[in-house]
Amino acid sequence: MTIADREGAASTVFAPAKVNLALHVTGRRNDGYHLIDSLVLFADIGDGLTVQLSETSHLQVTGPRAAGVPLDGRNLCLKAAAFFGADAAICLDKHLPAEAGIGGGSSDAAAVLRALAALTGRAIPAGIATLGADIPACLHGQALRMRGIGDRIDPVHDWPPLAALLVNPGVALPTATVFRALTTAENPGLPTLPAAPDAPTLIAYLRRARNDLEPAARALAPEIGAVLAALAAQPGCDLARMSGSGATCFGLFSDAAAAARAAGRLSAAEPGWWVQPATLT
Predict the structure, then answer these.
(1) Mean pLDDT rounded to a whole number for the chain
(2) I need a labelling partner for 32 at 20 to 30 A (CA). Which of 11, 16, 185, 232 fits?
(3) Which of 37, 93, 108, 134 is catalytic?
(4) pLDDT tens digit string along 9-58?
(5) Is residue 94 among the annotated active site residues?
(6) Does this model's pTM top 0.85?
(7) Nearest alpha carbon to residue 101 among 208, 179, 193
(8) Architecture of domain 3-148
(9) Which one of 3.30.450.90, 3.30.310.50, 3.40.50.1820, 3.30.70.890 gives the CATH number of domain 156-280?
């Protein structure tokens, strides 16, 4: 079947937000890449994409977070299509903030790869970590532990869904900038993961873990401290922490209703913040 024959077919895919519940920086390689040990869940909120095979690749961006998204070869969606070896017309409905520590661009790229695999019947090529350290995790798209430079993926099974509230103060924080600001790159890895915990057991475990990027990110963007304090002060919030390299933070709540009530209060108090309740799985 030729490209012309397939041009009418489209694949619609979801690109969920990635949330690092804990992120330990455990070393740095000679090539400058940092080593991490991170526990990752995915949210039921994210971006939507429609992908079609085309004679040439191009990207259209819509949605509430479309402003400022590059439409040229800098965009990870187009890089993903080139990596796959297919030309594609991509429509990205953008809802996640950029440079926010929740893997928005990487999740979009992973969604493009999944769509092209479905449209062509071809396997996704090996070596996807060269596109971005978070893309292997985003391709997996379910609860996992990621190690190395993000290329070692171990699925985590039988973990409970968590009611969460994601909050970004409207500050873009490039990942590379945060890593460069680290004062210490040699830290212990995650404590031994609990097997099949309930939500309270999992949250108790997370209190023993941390995000090693948070001090550097807070120095670069003091607004993160305000977000964490606001989340921690909400009734029913059991844990407040920054995700990834920031500036998005999350609060884990006793139930979805408590997270929704907190979302209403924070949205009213800070209308410039991005505030989204979510379920993490």
Answers:
(1) 95
(2) 16
(3) 134
(4) 999 999 999 999 999 999 999 998 999 999 999 999 999 999 999 999 99
(5) no
(6) yes
(7) 179
(8) 2-Layer Sandwich (3.30)
(9) 3.30.70.890
